[in-house]
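[[Per-residue structure]]
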Amino acid sequence: MTIRKVQTGLRLEECILYKAHYIARREKRSLNAQLEYAVQKCVEDYEAVNGPIPFDESEAWASPHKQ
């Protein structure tokens, strides 16, 4: 299965960006790889508590607040 990655813009406080770079260097990852890892871990933790988040590719870019 091909994994489609979407480029995004991300705004972070300077302190958080510095700390993310620090962790990435310690983990021998690029900043991008570290942020991907952090988001994936956040999703996994959320789903472990709340159950799977359904993913419908046709609605992937609709507002998550509309239900």
